[in-house]
């Protein structure tokens, strides 16, 4: 029997049958193969498009494709896999004119668990990997994002022409190393308390989302206020969120409130991407969040060990330094960024539309 001809179509068919190790779907079903070439000398090049720049361990894909091709085509030459990426998403903010593929809420059941640190780190981490990222501080009563990132000054207002030809005023986000941010902390003095009722809070969150000139984004992370309340309900009504990340510390007292946050997101039809355990170590313990994630059948996104450098850099307004090569926190933060990005990609593959909000 004659050997199967080594053609570009045959290579795509062979590689397409393999299962992606992260998404759990075939490369063909996940639309990750964008092309293949067979050179006259027999060398083979396969083009793979990843769903996020934070895809971990891509060498697993290279090895699997090379092995499958060698098995089916023994006479084939060396196999090279070339990678590009395009963020998968649900176009979360399309209904309000927000051009963002994925809007992600970062919340907790209580304050003091490092939610804002994790939110800022997720945004900055994915930004450093090449994604277009925004970070919105929705903790109107206690905004901390500007301080941690060392940002200050009031956002400028710029007049632009809308699609209908009308002139509109747009808020320019404050950029830190290219990361776009918006916070009430830019608009009121640090020592001044914001004393608002629910409708005013709803209006501010809506304005931050609709009137800020975010541009085209792959990810917009929203740092929620602690607890369960108006802001989450506002977001669930305005947007089809890509999901929510729950942050907690390992001890049982914190986990009790984190479970309430999980239930809140489920109630308003926001998919939970997973749980991050912050401040793991001798002081607060380790493993509580992972056990809770298993019990409630949600992904565990990783742990961030308690580390004085995290506190020092955040207090000094240099949270970005956590991604320096000498930072002991960097590998933990990057792993969490990878897991969050993969869970977003999985959700985007499964469903292109969020379910509608139930009337509570």
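-> sequence recovered:
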């Amino acid at each position: 029997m004659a050997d199967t001809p080594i053609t570009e179509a045959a290579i795509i068919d062979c590689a397409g049958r393999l299962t992606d190790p992260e998404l759990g779907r075939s490369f063909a079903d996940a639309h990750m193969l964008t092309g293949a070439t067979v050179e006259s000398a027999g060398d083979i090049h396969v083009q793979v498009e990843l769903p996020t720049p934070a895809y971990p361990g891509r060498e697993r894909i290279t090895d699997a494709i090379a092995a499958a091709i060698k098995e089916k085509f023994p006479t084939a030459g060396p196999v090279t896999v070339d990678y590009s990426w395009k963020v998968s998403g649900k176009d979360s903010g399309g209904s309000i004119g927000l051009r963002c593929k994925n809007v992600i809420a970062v919340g907790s059941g209580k304050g003091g668990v490092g939610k804002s640190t994790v939110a800022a780190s997720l945004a900055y981490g994915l930004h450093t990997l090449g994604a277009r990222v925004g970070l919105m501080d929705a903790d109107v009563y206690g905004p901390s994002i500007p301080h941690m990132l060392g940002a200050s000054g009031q956002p400028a207002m710029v007049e632009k022409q809308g699609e209908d030809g009308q002139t509109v005023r747009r808020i320019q986000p404050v950029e830190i190393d290219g990361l776009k941010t918006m916070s009430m902390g830019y608009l009121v003095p640090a020592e001044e308390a914001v004393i608002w009722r629910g409708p005013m809070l709803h209006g501010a969150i809506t304005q931050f989302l609709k009137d800020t000139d975010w541009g085209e984004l792959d990810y917009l992370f929203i740092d929620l206020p602690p607890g369960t309340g108006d802001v989450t309900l506002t977001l669930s009504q305005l947007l089809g969120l890509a999901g929510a990340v729950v942050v907690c510390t390992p001890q049982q007292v914190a986990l009790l409130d984190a479970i309430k946050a999980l239930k809140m997101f489920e109630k308003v039809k926001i998919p939970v991407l997973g749980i991050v355990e912050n401040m793991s170590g001798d002081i607060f313990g380790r493993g509580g969040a992972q056990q809770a994630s298993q019990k409630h059948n949600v992904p565990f996104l990783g742990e961030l060990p308690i580390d004085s450098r995290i506190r020092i850099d955040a207090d000094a307004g240099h949270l970005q330094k956590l991604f320096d090569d000498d930072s002991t926190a960097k590998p933990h933060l990057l792993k969490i960024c990878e897991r969050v990005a993969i869970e977003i990609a999985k959700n985007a593959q499964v469903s292109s539309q969020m379910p509608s909000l139930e009337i509570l």
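The chain has ten helices and 13 strands.
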